[in-house]
Amino acid sequence: MGPKMTAPIPTGKYATLLGTVSAHALFGGYYAATRPEGAGWRFFSWHPMLMMVGMVGMMGAAALTKKRGGYTNTKLHGIMAWFGMLLAGCGLYVIYQNKENMGKAHFTTFHAKVGLTAFSGCILPGVAGAVFLHPDFGIDKQNKIYRSVHKYASRALLLLAWTATISGLKTLIGDDIQTLIIFAAPLVLVAPFTLV
């Protein structure tokens, strides 16, 4: 009995899911970037904006695109995931520099630890995907174990990154449960199609 094959995401559903993660990344990123209320845009604002666009928008789109199946979508998946990592890396630089400018300690909160774990954890599946699984020159692209580890580790890390976005907003707004639920709702809605 061979591996279970899943049907590709239909175009209409893909467009809806892609629109949801993209809109959440942009609007949610801007919302978080301008918290607390009245803070406006400042240097720090680039941190949540870049992290949301990178880890929610681009990485979410990469996961959804891979589920479309095929050669082109596999290559797009890799490009989008690495671009998401680049944006998130810029967001990490911003928060690191912001903490330096303020003389504050680094990586002390739950949000910081989860975010750093998700970001640094994504590097290994990204490198493994590029070196071993690339559809053109991957040195072991048919290896089912590599493919399975890449798939499930990446999904777990994406869930961790999405958790970091919610905990980051909580750091900015406090215990406003209603706002946190509204902020998390798009991620909860797309998670079954993106992470499962």
Features:
196 residues, mainly alpha, 6 helices, 0% strand, globular
Descriptive overview:
- This protein is 76% helix and 0% strand.
- The chain has 6 helices and no strands.
- The protein has helices at 11-33, 46-66, 71-102, 110-133, 144-173, 177-194.
- The longest helix has 32 residues, at 71-102.
- It is globular, with a radius of gyration of 17 Å.
- The two termini are 22 Å apart.
Number of strands: 0
**What's the overall geometry?**
globular
Q: Helical amount among residues, as a percent range?
A: over 70%
Sheet having the most strands:
none
How far is the first residue's CA from the last residue's CA? 22 Å
Structural class comes to mainly alpha
The low-confidence runs, each spanning 5 or more residues with pLDDT under 50, are none
Q: How large a portion of the residues is in β-strands, by DSSP E?
A: under 5%
Please compute the radius of gyration using only Cα atoms: 17 Å
What is the ordering of alpha helices and beta strands? Answer: HHHHHH
